[in-house]
Amino acid sequence: MSERDLSDQEEIHSKVLRAGRRTYFFDVRSTKAGDYYLTITESKKFTHDDGSFHYKKHKIYLYKEDFEAFRENVEEMMDFIINEKGSEVISERHQKDFKKEDTEAEPEVEKSQSSTSSFTDVSFEDI
Length: 127
Fold this sequence. Notes:
This protein has three helices and four strands; from the N terminus they run αββββαα. It is an alpha+beta fold. The chain starts with a helix and ends in a 7-residue tail after the last helix.
């Protein structure tokens, strides 16, 4: 492999975004002509029953001639989502303190039982 080929594989600038089981890599690379392009890689960790794991990766190559249209579309889609659903995350799985076991369900059941027990104390002889 020539020295030029090695430099083509080299990352010029990189940034990492960790988001739960997913990690996003933003890498600026160089074309053979010496121009720059962006790769966006999503890497997602999958764990097997035996405790071993593997990663699945998906990559997007984005070239300068597509930057403006790409940016406009991403911004439009993000604005649409925020306008329609707000910025609050609805799915509890995405909450930082999410636990698989629902420990808060029991107290609510007890509350409803205690509030309904006061209705059972009503005497119907007065009717």
